[in-house]
Amino acid sequence: MDRRERLAAASRDGHLALRRVERQQAIVERLHATRGLPVRLGLLAEELDVSTRTVARDLERLRTSGVPLEVRRGRSGGVRLPLVRSPVQVELDVAEVAAVLASLAAVGPNASLSAASVLRKLADAVRPPSDGSSRPRPRT
């Protein structure tokens, strides 16, 4: 395999990975929008224009990465995110924030509304106050 073929393959693999990440984000946002109600895998597959098996693989990757998905089999089954009634607070140091910002930049900060929102919040969190003080800014 020559250099051009390797670069083309790497580019294709990167494109597929990006599509997978975008699709997984869309799944999480779709499940979040249902406010704890289950969604059938077939419906997710139809909405995302992929196979049910692709959705199942995406869900498994999300579960492996720590997303708290609940799957129920059967006629009234589906997948759901547990309902969380209040915003979640997470403490990150600057290096951790930078890692998340870099990941968002790679995916594309406008890939979804939640990606754009978290990018804005994280960037604001590490930006020095405009008045030059070192006091922490209020959380948004």
TrEMBL record:
Domain Helix-turn-helix type residue range list: 23-79
Superkingdom of the organism of origin: Bacteria
Membrane-crossing residue ranges in chain numbering: none
InterPro entries in alphabetical order: HTH_11, WH-like_DNA-bd_sf, WH_DNA-bd_sf
Name of the protein in question: Helix-turn-helix type 11 domain-containing protein
Organism the protein comes from: Cellulomonas cellasea DSM 20118
